[in-house]
Amino acid sequence: MSQLLHSLTALLERVRDGTTSVEEALETLKHLPYEDLGFAHLDHHRTLRQGFPEIVMAQWKTPEQVIQIVQRMVERHSPVLVTRASPEVYEALHTVVENAIYHPLSRLIVVDREPDRPKQPGVLVVTGGTSDIPVAEEAAITAEVMGNQVERLYDVGVAGLHRLLDRSEALMRARVVVVVAGMEGALASVVGGLVGVPVIAVPTSVGYGASFGGVAALLAMLNSCALGVAVVNIDNGVGAGYLAGMINQQMIASPSHL
């Protein structure tokens, strides 16, 4: 840490003296070191680089490790997002971080000091079936925590296509659509053929034997004939929600691109 403090001091002195601009200083801060906890290296400057703090994956971590990571992050960032968290991890964390909120369906923990800040509309999350909702909620809450207003359209798969077509207004007002589907994953292509905005397809592990734990849906989505469809990994709701949030924020910041 002494080297980090020396670097920061020298940087601030250059800003004070006028030899370094504020913009140059911010660029330098993007590349300063991380915090070493021994078992983890916390990237506290990710917000400067990407606009959102590092996301903590709780799966395969001990409750003690999650607690220590989140405590350090809460001191510096708002919000903090923890993914794939069990109820046991949440109960342990909540005793230390009282304003942590658990979403059991998506297995997300959110710590947000500004939950009522305005959110930008434009993200739509669609599922093929009810069984896809846990992954969809992971995507939706991730995008919401990033400052986006999310509309949900669940259980509108191709087995009853009229359910989707009856909600065409929601499709048309979206700036980016996340499509979450298992089985054969056909819904992503259908939505991709209806809208003129980016579609992020999320294959889920929902399905019977020959779905191969989501591989069938993944391959179908990768082979989509609809242009404008991008695909994330199986059950990767957080990745889809993060990408959708970034796209929506950038489109709002640059409305000429709409």
Keywords:
single chain; globular; 2 domains; 258 residues; Rossmann fold; 40% helix; alpha/beta
Describe the structure.
The structure is a single chain. By secondary structure, this protein is α/β, with parallel strands linked by helices. It has 2 domains: 81 residues, no CATH class; 133 residues, Rossmann fold (3-Layer(aba) Sandwich). The chain contains 11 helices and 11 strands. Strands 8-7-9-10-11 form a 5-stranded parallel β-sheet. It has a 4-stranded mixed β-sheet with strand order 3-4-6-5, with helices on both faces. A hairpin with a 4-residue loop joins β5 and β6. α4 crosses α5. The longest helix is centred in the C-terminal third of the chain and has 17 residues. The radius of gyration is 21 Å and the shape is globular. It starts with a helix and ends in a 5-residue tail after the last helix. The model has no long low-confidence stretch (mean pLDDT 88).
| N to C succession of SSEs | HHEEHEHEHEEEHEHHEHEHEH
Poorly predicted regions = none
C-alpha-based Rg, rounded: 21 Å
End-to-end distance: 45 Å
What does this entry show, briefly?
The chain has helices at residues 2-17, 22-29, 46-50, 63-74, 87-94, 133-145, 162-165, 168-173, 187-192, 215-222, 237-253; strands spanning 35-36, 41-42, 56-57, 80-83, 100-103, 108-111, 120-127, 148-153, 176-181, 199-203, 229-231. With 258 residues, the chain is α/β, with parallel strands linked by helices.
